[in-house]
Q: What sequence folds into this?
């Protein structure tokens, strides 16, 4: 049993897709979230920069005495190893999402979306290839999705995000995919729009939800779940202004979190 918080980080809002699912699965757990909003996006940066940022993000979470770290970021998960140098258990999002895609596909035609860095790393493709060597994979960096989400263009009635989604993904429909990995944790926030474009015949894989389940199992197996009977407390930290984050995050999580969002400077960590 361990009542310390679970640490979750991302470059911005995307990691909330993990938090939302953790809240459902483990309502009594405390969560500390860090979104590196001053330095988002990570996906267009070099491997060295992403690794440096990720290390600082994790140092911040460790300073909050977390019992586990979740890199709720496809980009970090694609370039960072498996966390063996950390003093607490670690997971990224690639393995859980790739495993879910392998399970979901019937025709072995899988679309993979992500940031530039994620697609360049071929992290999802490598994971899928271990289980399903004859899979036909269609990989696409969707660089405009993150700015759409960070700026709140997430309304399924709005023609703008729908047009962008169509531009990137329509060709995958022509290729006949039946499964699509939303390989960046920002992308499930656009899921209603993506599913409108892709239709019922394509199963969307949400790395946030898959990773939350995977992390919950890890904590259970290691005897690290909290024994608290009270609803867990959730605190949010960002590296830039809190207002924009609070507004979009509050809408996404379905609660007003503005009182629990604080700004921190992690550049010296
Ligand atoms: N949400 C992140 C990911 O899963 C990062 C997006 C970005 O900062 O470019 O890749």
A:
């Amino acid at each position: 049993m361990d009542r310390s918080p679970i640490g979750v980080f991302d470059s911005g809002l995307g990691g909330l897709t993990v938090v939302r699912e953790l809240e459902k699965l483990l309502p009594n757990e405390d969560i500390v979230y860090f979104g590196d909003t001053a330095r988002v996006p990570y996906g267009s940066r070099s491997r060295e920069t992403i690794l440096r940022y990720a290390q600082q993000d994790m140092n911040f979470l460790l300073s909050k005495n977390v019992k586990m770290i979740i890199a709720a970021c496809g980009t970090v998960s694609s370039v960072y190893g498996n966390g063996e140098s950390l003093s607490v258990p670690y997971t990224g999002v690639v393995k859980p999402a790739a495993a879910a895609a392998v399970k979901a596909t019937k025709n072995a035609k899988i679309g993979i979306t992500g940031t530039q860095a994620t697609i360049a790393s071929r992290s999802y493709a490598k994971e899928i290839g271990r289980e399903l060597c004859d899979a036909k994979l269609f990989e696409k960096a969707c660089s405009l999705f993150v700015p759409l989400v960070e700026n709140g263009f997430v309304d399924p009635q709005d023609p703008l995000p729908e047009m962008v989604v169509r531009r990137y993904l329509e060709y995958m429909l022509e290729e006949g995919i039946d499964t699509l990995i939303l390989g960046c944790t920002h992308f499930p926030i656009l899921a209603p729009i993506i599913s409108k474009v892709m239709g019922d015949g394509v199963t969307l894989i949400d790395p946030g939800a898959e990773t939350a389940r995977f992390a919950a199992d890890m904590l259970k197996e290691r005897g690290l779940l909290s024994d608290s009977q009270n609803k867990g407390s959730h605190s949010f930290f960002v590296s830039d202004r809190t207002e924009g984050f609070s507004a979009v995050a509050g809408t996404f999580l379905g609660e007003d979190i503005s009182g629990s969002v604080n700004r921190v400077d992690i550049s010296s960590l």
Notes: Residues 94-207 form a domain with the Rossmann fold fold (CATH 3.40.50.1860). The mean pLDDT is 95. The chain has eleven helices and ten strands.
